[in-house]
Amino acid sequence: MTNYSHPQKSLKFFPVDPWSTVNSEDCSGAIYRTVNINSIKLEGFVNDWLIGGAVISSDKEMDVEVGFQGNSKLITALDLKVAGEVPADEKGKMILRFDPLFKNPKDVGDLKGVMRNWESIYEFPILHLKPNQSVLIWITVNTKDLPEGKWKGFLTLMKDKKIFRKLSVEVTIYPVKLPEDNPIIGHTWTVYKDDEQFARLMRDYGINACGYYDNWDMLRKVGFRFFRFSFPPSNWHPESLKATDDGIRYELKMIQETISRLNLKPEEWGIEVFDEPCDQNAWIFIEWVKRIKNVWPDARFYANPGFSATNNAIATIEGIIEPLKNDVTVWCPYIEYLYRPTFLEALKKTGKPIWYYTIEYNHQKPLRGGRQHPWLAWRDNLDGWAFYGLREYGKSNPWKDNWICARMYPEKTVSIWMEGLRQGVQDYKRVWLLEKNGLSREEIINQLLQLFSDKGELPWCGAEPESYSIVRKKLDELLIEKLVKTKK
């Protein structure tokens, strides 16, 4: 270990937007060295998730221990994480910086060679720092049990149990209560089994719907609001339609018993009989609906119209919506149909709930991806969103391979994409609450348009991550004006 006498002079905190796409070399560059901050200020409401960030950079090689001091309520609400960098592959596909996030990196094993600055964060909360190798510290505050008012604590850097550097963390909670749960449906294709801890973690990120054959009782206990059942298992094969009514009745029994046991309301469940139906195979979907309703007239159905890249065909109004509109009770079309106004309008005319879903690979995982999800649903006045998937890796290595659909890393390691999703859900809660209190969608959009000279900066138009902090600040101002100042 390098000997040093004045660590407080060598080590600095630099400001950085937590959603910044800068890399570690940039954070160690001259532009950041001109500012040395002493505090981070976070503002929000009850049932909020607040995120702040600071870059730690040192002129000398040293080990420092990261800690936090403050009121016990604030300490309970706070979570410290470090972010590392995933390097680009030979094709330059991995565009994220500071991904993934770790609460305790050493729990996931030795990832040297995968994480570019892994050596700096290997023993977190002990950071091994080197010149020109910065580390990003994320400060997350869950305000669910943090009363309104002002709270203050200190991020501390220690050596030999002695604090030699502090960063003040000031949290202001305004007297506005956001809904605790995601007000709309958030769904992802994954299996939870008996992992209640993981299910609760995902509910914190706005996911409240589930599918496949899973531990339904546990998920109901956690607070999931929609249950997507699959029937029949072999729905891709027309031969399965030869099943007898007694056979179908037997296979449906488990679904019926689950619905009864969990006391699910009609709007809280649906049966998927065919994945991504399109014009060329919709007849199988139609036939299965007919067979199921023959033995269970009250059955409800979920349909996710597919797209050409999957089924070599497309879903049209004539081929999908018209023949299915009387039986489908929840629509979840692929995202491309949001950009086909006539198709979306036809779906809305059915009067049924509408979600949308998307499939993205890791190299398509920009920071705004997760943050944008709830905003897209709000833009089109939809009832939910969904994506594939959470932690399905197949034979791929999620640390290195880009061609997988996973938003999580092993050992429940959260990606920044997921952190963006959670913040997008918190954004949605704000606009939802504003609408509940009389501010129209048009008024909210007009307020946001005034923030930018370029409409492309709007949250649903591919805004860069840094733009969301501007949007969030405006939404907070509107809520304070509407729910705090007007009551005084």
Distinctive features:
488 residues; alpha/beta; Immunoglobulin-like; TIM Barrel; 5-stranded antiparallel β-sheet; 5-stranded mixed β-sheet; 16 helices; 20 strands
Structure characterization notes:
It is globular, with a radius of gyration of 25 Å. It is built from 16 helices and 20 strands. Helix 13 links the parallel strand 17 and strand 18. Residues 1-5 and 92-96 have low confidence and may be disordered. The protein is 31% helix and 24% strand. It is an alpha/beta fold and 488 residues long.
Radius of gyration: 25 Å
Helix content: 25-40%
Low-confidence stretches: 1-5, 92-96
Main β-sheet, spatial strand arrangement? 1-3-8-5-6
Number of helices: 16
Tell me the layout of helices and strands.
Layout: H1 7-10, E1 11-15, H2 24-27, H3 30-33, E2 39-46, E3 49-58, E4 62-70, H4 72-77, E5 78-83, E6 101-102, H5 118-121, E7 126-129, E8 135-142, E9 149-159, E10 162-177, E11 185-188, H6 196-204, E12 209-211, H7 216-222, E13 226-230, H8 245-261, E14 269-272, H9 282-295, E15 301-303, H10 308-311, H11 317-324, E16 328-331, H12 341-349, E17 355-359, H13 367-379, E18 384-388, E19 408-409, E20 413-414, H14 416-436, H15 441-449, H16 467-483
Parallel strand pairs: 2-10, 11-18, 12-13, 13-14, 14-15, 15-16, 17-18
Antiparallel strand pairs: 1-3, 3-8, 4-7, 4-9, 5-6, 5-8, 9-10, 19-20
Helix pairs in contact: 8-9, 13-14, 14-16
State the gist of this model:
The chain is of the alpha/beta class and 488 residues long.
